[in-house]
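Catalogue entry: protein

Sequence with per-residue tokens
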Amino acid sequence: MENPQDYELIVPAQYENLSLIGDFVVAVARRAGLDDKGVFDVQLAADEACTNVIQHAYAGEEGAIHLVCSVHHDRLVIRIHDAGKPFNPLDVPPPNLSGPLEQRNTGGLGLHFMRSVMDEVRFEFDEHGNHLTMTKRKTA
């Protein structure tokens, strides 16, 4: 059985911490052996996820973002937890990517980007908050 290497970061849910989160995720992704595209993808996904936590889960209230990045031999798993308002991805309509810009909804793009660049995206919420798990597999 594999023992992944875990890296943990807990920061206040504030926009000014997004660069710290990005630097952390990039460092772990490089340590995991992801190629440049993989590193970019996980940074984009983590930024979108944490921006959504700040903007929607806490919506101006104080709270923390807890990240755990697990380096496995064949993949990187990023787990993000917050104790903000419950989030159900089924409540977010898919974005209109083909209509004229003025007719497109503004919501759902972050979730779309996360699902597009990661190999797996899973949301759960319970009495302890929201749990997001994203997986990026290493390319051969």
